[in-house]
Amino acid sequence: MNFIRNTLAVLVGLGIAGLIITLGIRVFPQWVTFEAFAPFEHWQRFLESMKDNDAFFGFLLFISGLGTTIGGVATALIVKYAKVAYAILIGFIMLFIAMLDVIVFPYHPTFYKISIFLTFFPFSWIGGKIVEVIYERNKKRRIADKMNK
């Protein structure tokens, strides 16, 4: 049962991270060069149109970090044990996807290629730590409440 729960947690975390990145790309109308909702359907054409726009890639790093953090939080909330490890797994999978993106499409600036390694793991770790800290505080509070009764 834990396997199914953990697999579902990872899928939910990846879905949330992907949704946040998709919505983040659509925030600025001048960046939207496609008709469909998901920018990933026309990703090559979209990246080619953005290849000289460093502000876009900086924002993409930020929104990827935010999405990975929230995806890590969602994953850590669902799994029962090893919350930080599963949140970091979200960061690893997102880093793998970003590396494939950089390898397949040659339109990324150098700072983006380097920064993806510094973005996904720390932000997913932060997401897992947020949940771990909240759970530890609640656990200490429950123990204190039992002791005071």
Number of domains: 1
What structural class do helix, strand and pairing data support? Answer: mainly alpha
The overall pLDDT average reads: 88
The protein's oligomeric status is: single chain
How many β-strands, per DSSP? 0
Query: pLDDT under 50 segments (min length 5)?
Result: none
SSE string: HHHHH
Written description of the protein model:
Keywords: Membrane, Transmembrane, Transmembrane helix. The chain crosses the membrane at residues 7-28, 55-79, 86-108, 114-135. The chain is an all-alpha fold and 149 residues long. It has one domain (2-148). 79% of the residues lie in helices and 0% in strands. It is built from five helices and no strands. It has helices at residues 2-25, 43-50, 54-78, 83-104, 110-148. Helix 4 runs antiparallel to helix 5 (110-148). The protein starts with a helix and ends with a helix.
List the main descriptive attributes of the protein structure presented here:
149 residues; single chain; mainly alpha
Concise synopsis of the structure shown:
The protein is mainly alpha-helical and 149 residues long. The protein has helices at 2-25, 43-50, 54-78, 83-104, 110-148. The chain crosses the membrane at residues 7-28, 55-79, 86-108, 114-135.
Topology, element by element:
Layout: H1 2-25, H2 43-50, H3 54-78, H4 83-104, H5 110-148
Helix pairs in contact: 1-3, 1-4, 3-4, 3-5, 4-5
